[in-house]
Specification:
The protein has a single domain, classed as MetI-like fold (Orthogonal Bundle), CATH 1.10.3720.10. It starts with 10 loop residues before the first helix and ends with a helix. Helix 2 runs antiparallel to helix 3 and helix 6 runs antiparallel to helix 7. The longest helix is centred in the C-terminal third of the chain and has 31 residues. It is built from 10 helices and no strands.
Length: 217
């Protein structure tokens, strides 16, 4: 039998984890996306060293599990540099570095899809290389790869549940605490899953609205 009434008083506590989950996702994307842009530009650079560094970075972070990266940052940082890193800091750092690796591949593909004639046109108009990147190339690339970036954002939101492993009181962790207190596991986890689903649906809805707005622009 199901006993949702038993966890009714704990629903506000579980729902409070939504803010923590969104905070992790927002700050990770805020830090990871600019780094992803830098890595993408590095991969497309004619400079051998920059291209190899960006490629190696992506290979390492895409080739190892995010959970392992999170564990290394959280448990090894105090050992290596003596800094007692918090679960929040470890989560933001791990998710940002990991997201940057995946975002860089998405952005690189978007940049490659732009007509090379855009560079020639910008040069004829006397636009500097930096201004060409910022005002011509990147805006078009981001517009083209918006669906892929939204998918990365959704993955980041779901993967943020991993911070429960290191003790951060996110949505999943709170559901697990309630489950242990009430000796009921199905009900709290279903509530958590429903809240994750609603957040993903809201992000997808907002992305579609933005995509339509850009299409009409």
């Amino acid at each position: 039998m199901l006993h949702f009434e038993t966890i009714y008083a704990s629903l506000p506590y579980i729902a409070g984890g939504v803010a923590v989950t969104l905070k992790f996702s927002f700050f990770s994307l805020l830090c990871g996306l600019p780094l992803g842009v830098i890595l993408a530009i590095g991969k497309l650079s004619n400079t051998f060293v920059l291209e190899k560094i960006a490629t190696a970075y992506t290979a390492v972070f895409r080739g190892t599990p995010l959970l392992v990266q999170l564990g290394i940052i959280f448990y090894a940082t105090p050992q290596l540099i003596g800094y007692p890193i918090s679960a929040f800091e470890a989560g933001i750092l791990a998710f940002s570095l990991n997201s940057a690796a995946y975002s860089s591949e998405i952005i690189r593909a978007g940049i490659r899809a732009i007509d090379p004639g855009q560079w020639d046109a910008a040069k004829v108009l006397g636009i500097s290389v930096t201004q060409t990147w910022v005002k011509v190339i990147l805006p078009q690339a981001i517009r083209n790869i918006l669906p892929a970036l939204v998918n990365e954002m959704v993955n980041l939101l779901k993967e943020s549940a991993l911070v429960s492993i290191i003790g951060e009181a996110d949505l999943l962790r709170r559901a697990q605490i309630v489950a242990a207190e009430k000796f009921l596991y199905f009900e709290p986890l279903v509530v958590a899953a429903s809240l994750y689903f609603m957040m993903v649906m809201v992000i997808s809805f907002m992305a579609k609205k933005l995509e339509k707005r850009w299409a009409h622009a």
